[in-house]
Amino acid sequence: MSQKENKNRGRTFGFDTRMLHAGHIPDATTGARAVPIYQTTSYVFDSADYAAQLFDLKQYGNIYTRINNPTTAVFEERMASLEEGAGGVATASGMAAQLTTMMTLLEPGDEVVASQHLYGGTMTQFVHTFRKLGVTARFVDPNDFDAWEAAITPQTKALYGETIGNPQGSVLDIARLAALGSAHYLPVIIDNTFATPYLCRPLTHGANIVVHSATKFIGGHGNSIGGVIVESGEFDYAHYGSIADPSPSYHNLRFYDTFGHHAFLMKARVETVRDTGACLSPFNAFLMIQGLETLSMRMDRHVENAQDVASYLEQHPKVDWVAYPGLESSPYHALAAKYLPKGAGSVFSFGLRGEGGAVRAKGKTFIESLNLFSHLANVGDARSLVIHPASTTHQQLSDAELVASGIGPGMIRLSVGLETKEDLLWDLDQALHVI
Amino acid sequence: MGPGSGLACDLTLNSVLTPELKAKYQDQDTVRRVLGRTRTIAMVGLSTHRQKASFFVATYLGSHGFRVIPVHPKAKEILGEKAYPTLLDIKDPVDLVVIFRPAHEAPRYARQAVVIGAKAFWLQLRIVSEEAAQIAEAGGLTVVMDRCVKMEHGRYDGTMHFVGMNTGILTARRARRWLPS
Ligand SMILES: Cc1ncc(COP(=O)(O)O)c(C=O)c1O
Question: Which of A336, A402, B17, B143 could form a disulfide with A344 if both were Cys (CB 3.0 to 4.6 A apart)?
């Protein structure tokens, strides 16, 4: 071993260094510096015996790209490094990351207690798709820890929340939820999409599993759908049936006995993703890796722009409220200071002043008057995005139903991008002037 | 191909040991040196069941060039190698003794490992016995504790990376063989 290695041994590299290097060692043969795209479905085996051992999980290695791929593995290890977890499993989308996590942990008859401040698509998945699988989700106000506790039953197998919930702009008290999870022997799963590991690392606050829609800030450029699961490896699954018991779909393998702190991740990969087929394509993995290489710089700019846009909107006479946890007026300001010290993300909602149909019409006009904000249904693009749920995704709901679902006819959601800040303020200003 | 050329992060994840014990019994240079110098492994507690962790580890090590001698009270042969009832019955020189048995049995095996002149003593994941470690150390053996020999080999060999695990290895240098020989 060379002196150099000894000198550097044990060094904990910084976040930015890991963004660029973790999970990728330049190839022995070619020396290629960028991560090569292994656009292949499958991998030749050295021998029949070795292949048998691979299928038996007695060797770590590449089998088939639905299960693993060398480009995707770079993305997985890099995310695990950034989130400070034991490993990662990439998935076709954020929705697939959630479903994979739940299908790995849960059995029919099990329950999940979840925050009610979740992405709408997640709500739908938890209510309707889970029902088909015999799983029940109970939703609680994420700030009310008595409610979390009261919703836990003997069937409960996991707790679930988002670092930053929308449209409320609520910041989850992750450490408190983690303590509740430990007390009840329940893994705590956090959707960290809106914060990214640069702004918040839930595993370091005691959460057990992080899921991401990598579609958003991870990829960062609005060009590919993807997801990832990272697990801490700290949860003791010894008495957690689905991970500890013999698995009928893997020759009665006991994942926890065999893989220890890799058990959940191995099961998620070789059983759940194998069977659902919700793998990430290597090309998309490459784009996600490319996104990660600039994550910290982009997030710094995202939050700087978002903070100023939120402050601008808050003082505008035509704006009723702004739900950005980075504002002092937010009830979540203290939690944001604890969990999101570098900034409270760049996705938030605000309400136009007015009532019912009139404000619904104003919202529509406002959106249509913007020049720089792209009107679409996504968040976390490098470009600024906007949507008015009452005239698009939720247009079939009555004003009363909108209010009941916490959206309201005048609510606008922004995803503040990386453009010149003054241009964003100019655009919002001129559109507010029109209404 | 052995991609791990060095420059690793601090590998302190997923262990029940205190920071002092981690520094002592999970030091990455020590782990690499032990694996690099080992050819023959005696595995105490190697199971005859193909779905047990020990069987996975022995199978893995067997196909990575190690000879794994089973220590088993009843079995005659496991994975093509003659099994012995105790470490003391093994006639060939042993480089590394790997323990897959409960911690309270570990001191006994540590004493036997010293007697047979093994060079290193390894307690698998979650098997923690400071007493056994001290016995082995006093006998001149290098000790690793609360680590998995398959995971550690896979970490530095580059294969554990293929299943998305965090190896903690970070380097801008071209992949090359990592084990000191
Ligand atoms: C917080 C959050 N979680 C999950 C998802 C689902 O991710 P995907 O669209 O990649 O499936 C989204 C998408 O909007 C999201 O915003």
Answer: A336
